[in-house]
Design a protein that fits this description.
This protein is mostly helical. It folds into 2 domains: 82 residues, no CATH class; 60 residues, Winged helix-like DNA-binding domain superfamily/Winged helix DNA-binding domain (Arc Repressor Mutant, subunit A, Orthogonal Bundle), CATH 1.10.10.10. It is built from 8 helices and no strands. The model has no long low-confidence stretch (mean pLDDT 86). One of its GO terms (biological process) is response to stress. Keywords: DNA-binding, Sigma factor, Transcription, Transcription regulation.
Length: 165
């Protein structure tokens, strides 16, 4: 089957096959997905499809098998979740976490990236420089400025500072 013949076959058969799989599966989106995937598989076997003489039957069979394979995968996944039980409840972020994220968002992008890589990813200055393409001194500058900015943003506002201290 030439490229042109396969394209013509696709144009005349895709709607019919999608309709047939829709009736079999009861899910239009799933039918569209498996028919498209079956045509992709058929593309690489178009010479074989021509020899077999029943390309539509081949596409329909492959689409059906793909759907069954997806069902089995979903069922195994569901069974695994059922065996493992529901995940434990997770508390929402505390106010200190929300304040920290807001403070990080206020930093310029390069400072935020450097601070995150250093303090959350535990990378050295040299590793950050290698990953970001910046010099080590630039990374150090970003870290110092980021710490100063975070310290200012994270300082409790309700505590009065002693001017004599």
């Amino acid at each position: 089957m030439t490229v042109e013949e396969f394209e013509a076959f696709y144009e005349q058969a895709v709607a019919r096959l999608t309709g047939q799989l829709y009736v079999m599966l009861g899910d239009l989106h799933e039918a569209q997905d498996v028919v498209q995937e079956a045509f992709v598989k058929g593309w690489s076997r178009r010479r074989q499809l021509d020899r077999d003489g029943q390309p539509e039957a081949w596409i329909r069979t492959v689409a059906w098998r793909l759907a069954v394979s997806r069902w089995r995968f979903r069922r195994r996944t569901s069974d695994a979740w059922d065996r493992a039980g529901a995940p434990p409840p997770v508390e929402g972020p505390g106010p200190e976490y929300v304040v920290l994220i807001d403070a990080l968002r206020d930093l310029p992008a390069q400072q935020r990236r450097s601070v995150t890589l250093h303090y959350l990813c535990d990378l050295s200055v040299e590793q950050i420089a290698g990953e970001t393409g910046q010099s080590a001194s630039t990374v150090k500058t970003h870290l110092v400025r980021g710490r100063v900015a975070l310290a200012d943003r994270l300082r409790p506002r309700n505590v009065e500072e002693d001017p004599g201290a």
